[in-house]
Amino acid sequence: MNILGISSFYHDSAACVLVDGDIVAAAQEERFTRKKHDADFPINAINYCLDEAGINIKQIDCISFYDKPFLKFERILETYFSYAPKGIRSFLKSMPIWIKNKLWIKLIIQNELEYDGKILFPEHHLSHAASSCFVSNFKESAFLTMDGVGEWTTCSWGICKDNNIKIMAEIEFPNSLGLLYSAFTYYTGFKVNSGEYKLMGLAPYGKPKYKDIIYKHLIDVKSDGSFKMNMDYFDYCVGLKMTNSRFNKLFDGPPREPESKITQREMDIASSIQKVTEEIVIKIAKYVKQETGMKNLCLAGGVALNCVSNGNLLKKNLFKDIYIQPASGDAGGAIGSALLAWHSYYEKPRNYNNYDKMQGSYLGPEYDNKKIANFLNENNYPYKKLQKNDLCLMVAEHLCNQKIIGWFQGRMEFGPRALGNRSILGDPRIADMQKKMNLKIKYRESFRPFAPSIRLENLSEYFDLNKESPYMLLVAKISSEQRLANSNRDDNSKGFEKLSTIRSTLPAITHVDFSARVQTVNKKTNLLYHELITKFYNKTNCPVIVNTSFNVRGEPIVCSPIDAYVCFMRTEMDYLVLGNYILEKNKQPVFSDNPNWKKEIPLD
Is the pTM of this model over 0.85? Predict the structure, then answer.
């Protein structure tokens, strides 16, 4: 049986194909169109998933869309009517899109795909829950889903047993932890649905001096974690912006202008909302544990991408184990909706093994050495071809020499994180590597930290973390053994001055609060990447490398060799590795974008 899952028309459109319940392929539309957070109907992602499964649309038994458009439209209409006549501009702007497109998802699917089979529409938060519960290896678990908003729901919790999911309680719009966090993302000058990671990364530079103001004026939180927001301070219900003038008065001025200087105020605001978010998540999780008695917890929804909050939750030891869907945002809804069709609609049983069903999240396109060689030879790009062992040795040597490497291997990752197949790599021991990679490679703010990839077997030597973190969704502290003498001293530095302090043996991945967003690398899920880190370890006695996504600011992670080469040549990377081929920047011809290039290399 073949099932196609689809998410689209909000942000991060994606597609997934299941064959007899197994995830064969999943990809986000942005990777093909090169349009960040592309929300359009994911026709390119769908075509890829069908090709990867070796089937056509006629062989699809069922399509499952990740939410209920009519229920979402009901919420939008009721909200506008509740606030009328306020918000008329926003209403007039949004209605044509709904009336022309978003209401008619079934017709769009039928017309775009020439499909006349069964189409299902599970609820948004049910898709989130399934995306985590059904891919975890837990036979039974509690779940917690938190995001901006689905149809009406913004937060839900319940129980999953075998192939049955039951939502037991919900919080509804406009009360939303995700939208509260996004409001502060907007207010501090970052882009909503994109800049939340920046807000999280900014938080350790400040102090939570505004936390009491948030609790007093913006959100009333009960002991069980349920909450109600004071909408007098927000405009997102009917406006074209997230906050209003009353919000400005609370926080000493108007929102920061995007790209303007970040001040201590923004740092303290970021610290405050991060702390509030963590505290609310803990309260809800405690109540869920109390009510369900479950040993395990599954997380999904956009708030589950807050890896600082996840790490904090893990440390509380409320649950024996926690599983987080690596594509917890709307993209993961494509997987969740497909699995709901398989397990809930068709009542197919789950199969269990020692690993989750996400396969390391390596679910996207792969380009073999033949396709890569054709691309390089057709464009006369100089390269060396090496066997895998020699390749890893050479790249490890370049990393030791402080070179920055574009690393393109195997199947592209699904979700927002590069996990060793579409990554940019560096040496974590170099003090200025973070600044160099931020400013010269990623072209982004210098305060943003980088993630470490570490061999799983060395985890406890470097981080205070007692479980695998294959998807880079847990933040943990650098172990005391790796911290430098006097690194805890109060040097009176403020704000970004803290960047100049070297705190550990791995300065390039150590944030100013000694934290790091850890990726553990297991040879069973990514043997080549594990081998590269091992070669680096053999040379340096350091089993850690810097891993950041293979893209520049404002662009999606690269998908094809063409995308990788263009990114390589537009930045100050030193080497590019495409499969078994390594390219040196200094030996490449003068670069200009080739208008005759296709956006992707055919996979057939």
Answer: yes
